[in-house]
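In the previous chapter we treated chains in isolation. Here, by contrast, the input contains two separate entities that must be folded as one system, with a combined length of 570 residues.
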Amino acid sequence: MNVAEVLGRKEVILQDSTGIDYAGYAHRGFGVDYEALMGCTGYNLDQVFQIQRGMGVGGTPLVELTNLTALVRRYAEPGKGARLFIKDEAANPSGSFKDRRASLPVHYAKHRGYPGVLAATSGNYGAAVACQAAKCSLPVIVVQEAFDSRGLGQPEILEKGRRCAAFGAEVMQLSVGPELFAVALATLEETGYFNGSLYTPFAVQGVETLGYELAEQTKAQTGKYPRMVMVTHAGGGNVTGTARGLRRAGAGNTEIVGVSVDLSGLHMASDSDFNRKSFTTGHTGFGIPFASWPDRSDVPFNAARSLRYLDSYCTVTQGEVFYITEALAQLEGLERGPAGNTSLAAACVLAADLDQDEVVVVQETEYTGAGKHPTAQLALARSLGIEITLGPRNLDKPGERIAIPENWQQLGVTPVDLDQLRRSYLRRAAAQQGTFSTADLDFVAEDLNTKRQWVEEQLHSIGEEDG
Amino acid sequence: MSKKTQWQWVEIERVLLTPQQRADHIPDDTKAVPLTMRAAGFLLDASAAPGDKARIQTPAGRVWEGTLLHRCVQPSHGFGAFLPELQAVGPKLRRALKGDAKQ
């Protein structure tokens, strides 16, 4: 395979394999007609619900976390400590909310006569695609980055790969490297399969039902919409789909809080850093770059655009997520995987600042098991010389030390400045575009969920900095 | 599936890109090693032993050739050993819930 040659054919391969004419939605200057692009699937929300119900997807329970709420209140100021709920997405057929994300790509591929579906993913999404494609009798190829140059596999990725294979997928497990994208493109070209990218409008629209259900369930169970919805954030699809669904349900005032595990300092494309990460997704290695430049994804224009929807964003440590994973199992009887527990860790902190009649919803759980369990990750970390210690979050240093809190009061969050991410987006946009028309500025302001005046001021200051 | 298929589920490894063929803008440690792939499927060359070149047919029906790694594939991931740092979390929090000041 010649990487440069394959990448040179990227546009044609992507158009053929998604059936989406991205260029047709592009503005003359910068950006696209986003809502028109999102509508290209041709499905309305009722149809999405119907397709998902037919596959056994969705309708997951919203569970009140009474004991965790009691703990929050025990250490909060008097009168403080919002009610905590969690949407048990592990109840979906393949064990995560990714079934919602996979439902439309698989449905579309089947009905358009594609011979199969390809998904490039760390795993849960691949498992979801494979799960639903199995029911539709469509073959699946999953491409995942799975092991380092010594052949050592990341346990969670191995588990997710095992699950893909259990549903009958061919799993191409690759060593570390961004050339995975070129491998996926070449495979799409060879097979003519549908590109089940995580970042098409199909994939993102499927998540809208999660936000919609969550809003209705919260209203039914508490009489109000949530004050905050906590979303584990990586590539942006979870944030985007959930927020859009909440808005459709009428919960437009609900605050959308993104949460990622802090993996700062570890390089995402480094062979030697690969297994020093105890989390394979929902971490800052995806969350920060994808927020500040969503179009680094594997499609010409990413439908998942977190800065459009995030009201705030914070990070938690690896040790805190392991701690809260134990707490959820032992106090609430829910043994669940790392993805949802990332935003749960932050929810337990932020709920303490809210009044007791407020409601905070963690919008997902995922299945757990071999490879995904904290002990599997910590055993690998320890074998690689990473120190495991008890103590506060400031001791945690990704790749060197994992600090598991000694007590509840040691839980915390680190806020991420969204304006800094917006400026990073603008710097990249300015390098790409040069001058911006009024229409360009309007698109950027909408894409960053900010005022046009702020965009103009920032572009001006970036221009001065660059001299 | 051809008549020769033994329905033996095996794993092969092959090099997709040598270090010289790798992309330009990747970290040095990654660029120094090949991009390799592992895939599992049904063995098409019944007599192949680990270390031999062998062909497999994958569940998607594709045929790959590579070095045979295992004739009997077994997941290498598990749960890891119990850790005292984690085992203590539940009991301490239950104590805290009951109102004991010490967690």
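Chain A has a mean pLDDT of 96. Chain A touches chain B through 65 residues (CB under 8 Å). Compare these points with the single-chain example from earlier in the chapter.
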